[in-house]
Structures are given as structure tokens and as C-alpha cells.
Amino acid sequence: MTPAFSKRVAGIVATGVVAPAFATTQCPPEFGKKSDGFMMIGWSLLFLALATGIALMYFVIKRSRNWKLWQRLPALLLGATSMLAVWIGGLAAFFSLFVFTC
Hints:
By secondary structure, the protein is mainly alpha-helical. It has helices at residues 3-23, 36-63, 69-99. 3% of the residues are buried. Helix 2 (36-63) packs antiparallel against helix 3 (69-99).
């Protein structure tokens, strides 16, 4: 092994050891507790995403009710995929914007 390669490997190993320390650091004390209004907006965003996903799937089921199976199945799969995408997007926005912020 060359010295440059071993330095890179040592750097990667050191990053793997140090990275969990960054994940467990706390917010500075001056940030304190988030206000109730701020968290209410976050919870509203999460519930809006869940309701939107359910409404989207309900709309797809209702609109494709009289279709033949070979036409309806792709629409239902696309609707379920869209519903899950809206749910995951809402959950990601909730956690990244409201829960994991200082």
C-alpha cells in the first residue's frame, strides 16, 4: 500500500468513528424549547400530508371504479405510490423543518 492510500483509509475510518459524535451533539442552550405555535404548524403540516395522501388514494379509487381490471390496476398502483410519496415527503418535512432544528 502506498502512503497516500493508507492516509485515505485512515481518514475514512476516523470519519466513521467521529461521525456519531456529531449526531449526538445537542443544540446550544440559547435556542431552548420551541414555541407551541411553531410545533402546531409542524403537526398541521404532518396531518395535512397524511390527509392529502388519503384523499389522493380515495380520488383514484373513486375515478377508476368502472374501469376494466387491466386499466384500473396501474392507476391503483400509481395512486398508492403517490400516496406513499406524499406521506414520506410530509414526514420528511416535519422532521427536517420542525423536529430536528435547533
